[in-house]
Structures are given as C-alpha cells and as structure tokens.
Amino acid sequence: MQTEMDSLLNQTRNQATTIQTEMDSLLTQIQDEAKKMQTEREKISEDLNNKVNEFKGQITLVVTIFSAVCCALIVGLVAPYVRSKIKI
C-alpha cells in the first residue's frame, strides 16, 4: 500500500514538474510575443509620426504658396486702383 502511494506521489510530482515546465515555456513565449508587439507598436508609432510631420510640412508649403498668391493678387489688383486714384 505504501509503495502504491509513493508511486502515485512520484507520478503526481512528475506531472506537476511537467506542468510547471510547460507553464514556464508558455510564459516565455507570451513575454517574447509581447516584446515583439511592443517593438512593432513603437515602429508603427514612429512611422505615423513621420507621416504626420511630412503632412504638416506639405500643409505649411501649400499655405505659404497660397499666401504668396493672395498677396500677389491683392497687389496686382489694388496697385492699379491706387495709381488711378493718385494719378501718378
């Protein structure tokens, strides 16, 4: 009877050790996957920030060109009117 109990106890210990090893392996895999996901998230975030900055630069360029065109139009339209009123 004692031998059977010892045998069952050893089997239980072996199973517990196997389960613990599998759990440790799974935990390591989960941690590795989490690190990969974090790295990928950081890369995506950096790419997105670069695209946003590029877009801001393009918007700034468009606004600058638009402002220059508006100023040229204003000067082109107002200058003849002013000259006609001043009679230079």
Keywords:
88 residues; mainly alpha; 0% strand; rod-shaped
What's the layout of helices and strands?
Layout: H1 2-86
Number of DSSP E strands: 0
Cα-atom Rg, whole angstroms?
A: 37 Å
Helix content: over 70%
> Overall pLDDT, averaged?
94
Give the helices and strands as they follow along the chain.
H
**Stretches where pLDDT falls below 50 for ≥5 residues?**
none
Count every helix, treating DSSP H or I runs of 4 or more residues as helices.
1
Largest sheet features: none
Shape: rod-shaped
Q: Structural class given helices, strands, pairing? A: mainly alpha
Strand content: under 5%
Distance between the termini: 125 Å
Overall description:
The chain has 88 residues and is mainly α. It has one helix spanning 2-86. The longest helix has 85 residues, at 2-86. The mean pLDDT is 94.
Brief characterization of the structure:
It contains 1 helix and no strands. The chain has 88 residues and is mostly helical.
